[in-house]
Amino acid sequence: MAEDSLRMGGLSSGLAVLLNGEDSKEGSSKSRLVSYCDDFGHQSVERTLEYIFGIPNRSIGSISGQIDSSLVRTIIKNECSEFYSDSSLNLRNKDGIYIADNGHGPHIIGLEESSICGDIRIVRPPLLVESLAIFSSFRANACLWKGKWMYEVILETSGIQQLGWTTLSCPFTDHKGVGDADDSYAFDGKRVRKWNKEAEPYGQSWVVGDVIGCCIDLDQNEIMFYRNGVSLGVAFHGIRKMGRGYGYYPAISLSQGERCELNFGSRPFKYPVEGYLPLQSPPLINTFAVQLFRCLSRLLDMHNVYQAEHSSFEKLRRLKRFVSFEDLFLPVAHGICEEFFSVLEEDIQSIEYIAWGPFLSFLMEVHGMQAPDDYSSLDRILDVLLEFQGSNALFEHIINALSCGCKTAKLVLTECPCSGSYPYLALACHILRREELMVLWWKSTDFELLFEGFLSQKCPNKQDLESIMPSVWWPGSCEDMSHESSMMLMTTALSEAVSKIEEKHRDLCRFVIQFIPPVLPPQLPGSVFRTFLQNLILKNRGADRNVPPPGVSSNSVLVSLYTVLLHFLSEGFGMGDICSWLKRCENGPDVGFLHRGGEQSYPIGLFLKNDPPRTDISRLGGSFSHLSKLHPVNDREDEVVRWEEGCMDDQETRVTHLSTQKPCCCSSYDADFARSLKNPITYTTKGSRSHCGPLSERSAHVAAECSAGSLNDEIADKPSSSDQSESEFGYRPLQQTRFVSRESNMSSATLREEELLDVLLLLYHIGLAPNFKQASYYMSHQSQSISLLEEVDKQIRERACSEQLKRLKEARNNYREEVIDCVRHCAWYRISLFSRWKQRGMYATCIWTVQLLLILSKVDLVFLYVPEFYLESLVDCFHVLRKGDPPFVPSSIFIKQGLASFVTFVVTHFNDPRISSAELRDLLLQSISVLVQYKEYLAAFESNEAATQKMPKALLSAFDNRSWIPVTNILLRLCKGSGFGSSKHGESSLSSVVFQRLLRDACINDEGLFSAFLNRLFNTLSWTMTEFSVSVREMQEKYQVLDFHQKKCSVIFDLSCNLTRVLEFCTREIPQAFLRGTDTNLRRLTELIVFILNHITSAADAEFFDLSLRRQGQSLEKVSRGMILAPLVGIILNLLDASENMEFTEHNDVVAIFASMDCPSRVHCGFQLLLDYNWDGSFRGDSYLTKLTLLEDFLALLVSRSESEQVFQMGYEEETDVNDCICCICYACEADARFVPCSHMSCYGCITRHMLNCHRCFFCNATVLEVVRIDEKTS
Q: Could you tell me if 1240 and 1234 are in contact, meaning their C-beta atoms sit under 8 angstroms apart?
């Protein structure tokens, strides 16, 4: 600026020295001309003061006395008085606006309380508001009818808010607000709509921290909105003109829990729009304050030049022709500040505007917007300012302004790496090094809100990502190859910017941790930080709900605080030994808490204490109030559990931080693997779907689409099998674990690392987990979009028809835009979430948490009190790392080298009755279902002692009306390769021989368990086939295939195929369950086979059958009838093979059972379908022909036996015409059993099948106590 440099005209009579400084090397215009002597030998102090105050040359006469603050103030009043009077830009008498007095002053704009509808809470004065009602609306107390005006809204939340303008004729109700009536106009960035009775698309989606400018032009009759200074275009044309006193009012409507801060002009606008005036005029002293701060800036500039060219000035001083700058700085600075504070005292209401405006700009300029920051100049000016009593109020507003700046600052690519909130954080961290300012901040009523503001980071939306990542590239793309290097440079620059912001977050938190508040009794370091964490937890109760309660923190605050704590616990605090935090251990004192080996400890009082922030948190055993009544633990709150790291792992597979082989987070392989990832962008291609491909896309697909609460909610209730005793879950004896009392009261008063770990897990649950879920969505959607784009490109190359080509090109443009958007989002999530040190810390957190949970699971009382978020955070964090993009470590060592305990935990507790939440048990079961789909992870299960000992029986028990889908997927994966037609895709090489043997042994050794499992398997398969048949019939009747019905059919068909495969495995491994003893199981199996064949043959013609199942991108072989016909063939062949085995010489007759079925012609038709089906696509070679020959022989024998059975039945019916002892249920057997006590009779086979699912008589509904066989003689 012109004022920042001396003019040549002002030095025409004096000798000048050109001081270039370092700035000249950069081509800067900051060279300074300093006069030090005139023609008559007078000292140049007058000329120096003229430069500092920006007044004409020789305006100041000769100064003979000492330079002091009084002299400086006199110069200001005499020479600079026009600045104060020039504030005559007095807009308080502006035409076109009327401000009603609301009790805060005649020219102060605020809420018009009489207009409030709903429930509006002022979170922080002056105008940070929040809606506590379902929908709240209000107007301001300013009416406009002429001119161009604006106000700004800073979004604290990003939900449904309607911001705009309205007249008095607009009614506010519980459902209608701004924009819902005539002469009422609003913009809503959540729904990206503008509102004037009806909604229309407009603008951009908004995010937390956005500054929305609401502008009204009553000269052109237009309303427009701005987002962060960027125009969204004219929203409304031709709005109605109003007369004096009947104009437009600023107004907003908020849905429940929404917060925003309004600025009508009490502070300088963040993004002023040229030509538009604030509703509230700036204070009179604003221009004067701006000039004073410019004077201080010039004074500091001269000081910097003096420091840079110190030797040159010393040479001039030896000639006694120069006055030392140091002799001028303090009196001049004091004089300027005295005048500033004296003027400020006369207009105390202007302090907020001055602090947020010229004073903040001055401090930012002195500190330096870019690194390296000018700490020396800032410290000098702070020393002077803090000598004045009025500086406290000024710095209160400065801290507030810096906190707000962190919330609204956006990343700008050209400013990286010192972009975003970094300048505000760097200045805040520096000024808060001063104890008096730290105390001032701590004493403010808004300390915690301001702290959250400092931890805020503005997340970019689609348009923001376009501005910071203009060039996009992904492997295999047809984009310009130069985009690859451009994107690499952009992501590197953004990563550095995010890293610098995170570093300042840590610095700020260190200051708070080290701060000792001036209170009695004295407190220890960390007490203020602990209080902040506790209040944050209390404030964010329910933040994980679908509709969070009002007042919860911004997600970016939770993420930033999590990142800070993760760095402290993983990488160390970096501030020495604070109250014995850093334990001395074999790894050394600087090793992070999560990476220390040897003895571990944890205070169980974190779970047991009745603290307000924690009592509402759900526990594994239920609610805290419920547990405290049933299982009081008041005498154990001070205990600490101690154990040796890795004590819960098998000795052979144990990996600890003290062992030779280190966990992945501390191994040398981690660093080597990180260096091998030369291009992180490469992990966004189709290969990023999984770094170790799934063995069965079908099973994974079913697991994802049929997770808890989808289709299985419709299943009829079945007896639950989650009835195992608690003793079954005590897997490993606690030989290396002990509980001890806390050492002293001092240790309990000190903020411990274990407390930070507890908060870390909660922050992950409510803050990080939703972000990782969103990242997973974009990564998955990117892979799908790339596949679709490649498919369209292929079709474009093959098609010649112009009409089709036009449609394909339109589709290609849409897919390309989706890919580009996904690539940008994925790149952002990698930058912000998946940095290397964060993955390392998350891996160590998983190790620590799972070992803690395993230890506590051995103590029933304590385990019940463990918060649910411990388990949820562990599982989610584990899978985030497993699917990391880029991957943290190869999947082959991901579990093996550090997380074997995770396998132990999930297999031990997925059916643990102490975990009261069925959703949590499902979460563990789903983890198993996902992991066993991958060869590397399945190997970890096979080598895990707990998995081999407990999982087979637990899986059979868990197959109930809630968990049957994931259990089926697990069993299917474990039994792969053993069925008919499964060798086509090499599944036999992927089978788990270990678990097949274990499952067989479990079924044989526990007949009761297997019998119950088989009964539920029969019932479930019967239900799925019925649902499938009904769904197909519905589509056939409507002559259309809807997406929903198609998806439902496909999912149910998949489930039916999987269940049939499991049943096939049972017939192969445990044929005696069907061939020995009563023929109940065999008869039910036979009926089920016939039932399925009937539904498959009668459901629809082949073309419609395939159409009802196949979805986009699926191949024919994945939706053919052979998927379910193959296991049916396998079941029959397994029974025939077992029947021929000498071990089963006395067995149930398979052919006879099939021959006894009703409608033998339908049975024969079904078997003929099995023979006629084209099995070439299911086998390699023609080895299957031999098996089909066996099936053909079986069908011939069945036809012959059926004919004989019909002849016999005719004769039997003649005999039974005079016999009343026939079973009235099946009409096939003699009634040879009766119920006790009701004495109703039926055949034993029908009664046995009925008793599997119901213990009431099917005649009179009486409770059955006993079933008695009737002796032949008695009958």
A: yes
DSSP 1212-1239: HHHHHTT---B-TTTSSSB--EEEETT-
Average pLDDT for residues 1083-1091, to the nearest whole number? 89
Structural domain including 1265 reads 1220-1274
Rounded Cα–Cα distance for residues 389 and 382 (Å):
13
Same domain, 230 and 343: no
Last residue of a domain, one of 1209, 1235, 1265: 1209
pLDDT score of 338 more than 90: yes
Alpha carbons within 13 A on the beta-carbon side of 93: 4
* Domain contains 62: no
Q: Is the peptide bond before 1237 cis (omega within 30 degrees of 0)?
A: yes
Residue count (the chain): 1275
- The phi and psi torsions of 561 (rounded to 5 degrees) equal -65, -40
Find where tokens 């693997």 sit: 673
Query: Same domain for 1198 and 1241?
Result: no
Please list the helix, strand and coil fractions of the chain in percent, rounded to the nearest 5, in that order: 55, 10, 35
Q: Are residues 1194 and 1262 in the same domain?
A: no
Reported as a single tens digit per residue, the pLDDT across 152-167 is 999 999 999 999 999 9
User: Given a cut of 90, is residue 1027 above it in pLDDT?
Assistant: no
CA 20-24-25 angle, to 5 degrees, is 130
Looking at the structure of the chain, the number of domains it has is 4
When the pLDDT of each residue in the chain is averaged and rounded to a whole number, the result is: 81
CATH label of the domain that carries residue 145? 2.60.120.920
- Whether 1121 and 1258 map to the same domain: the answer is no
Give Cα separations from 629 to 139, 262, 608, 609, 616 (angstroms). 50, 48, 12, 14, 15
| 3 state SS of 936 | helix
So what's the pLDDT on residue 1170? 85
1189 contact partners, CB below 8 Å, separation of at least 6? none
A 10 A CB-CB count for 722 gives 17
The C-alpha atoms of residue 1202 and residue 1195 are separated, in whole angstroms, by 10
Which residue reads 């009306």 in tokens?
961
- Domain contains 161: yes
Same domain (yes/no): 503, 399: yes
Same domain, 1202 and 1230: no
Place of tokens 């003109």: 241
